[in-house]
Amino acid sequence: MRIKLFIIIMLLTFETCSAAIEWSQFEWISSSIGDKTFDRVGILVPVKLKNNPKTFWMQLDTGSDFTVLYQIPFNQLNYPAQPIKGQEDFVALSGSIGNCPFDSFPVFMYKDFGDSLNDKKVHPVIGSVGQDILVGRILILDFPKKRFCLTDSLDPAVKSLLSRASFVNLNRRDNKLFVHVQIADTSSDDFFYDTGASLFPITTSKAMWQKLTGLKGDEKNNIRMKVPSWGQEAVLIGAPAKGELKFGTLRVAGPMVYFDTTGMIAFSQGPFKADGLLGNALFYDEYTVVIDLVHNRFGILKDK
Hints:
The chain is mainly β and 304 residues long. The protein has two domains: 24-134, Cathepsin D, subunit A, domain 1, CATH 2.40.70; 159-302, Cathepsin D, subunit A, domain 1 (Beta Barrel). Helix content is 12%, strand content 46%. It has a 15-stranded mixed beta sheet that branches. A six-stranded mixed barrel has the order 3-4-9-5-8-7. Strand 2 (27-33) and strand 3 (36-49) form a beta hairpin. The N and C termini lie far apart (44 Å).
């Protein structure tokens, strides 16, 4: 009898320890910019609202101060979101992102923004997931397999993946996720990771761009792109850095660096110190990214 009980316990232990991570699939946003179509300009994650069986979608945007609902599509749902006393323009929302539940979370209502919903839309978008909802949780973004896990549980499967990742310190300040990077001969603690900037490896100020590239900005060979940003249009100039990017164990020779010419993305004039941002393009071909806001660290794991 004791032997049988021991075997049962061992089997249950093995089953628990070998349980797989609860992955959810994300979708890439594609968009035409000029005469080109780009397949990976943003990330959409599935969202369910409490007491509503439908699946909606929100853009994953760690560069956003808050998680945001777009008023135009959200109003079409006739969903009873509760206003928050003392927090104008915020509502309390409950539901889940992928397999991760959230309850009465304060979400900013972006008035008169967003696209109307219709039955033809495969991915009805109702808002954006900001960095605020990641606090106290771990976000794992497996770019090659187009899947993610948001969790507040360090179960054995998650621990196993984390043990294989290479980490750097993550400093969450001013509602941004800052990490240390070295680009060419410049070292900085003031670049933040922004999943909403999927197309661009590095975006910075004009002065920093000139330092990183050794260029003036008016060269004929520079890349010029017009891109939408929160209902407006930014114009970015890009060129390769004059040296490699060093970020943890990641090394990228001559990564593309961009600056905005319109003033919409003005790092040097912001209310807090920032040298620029890092986008998904650095990672999305080969890497899994870990944003660990339980232990305040940022990890990368190369796909096998």
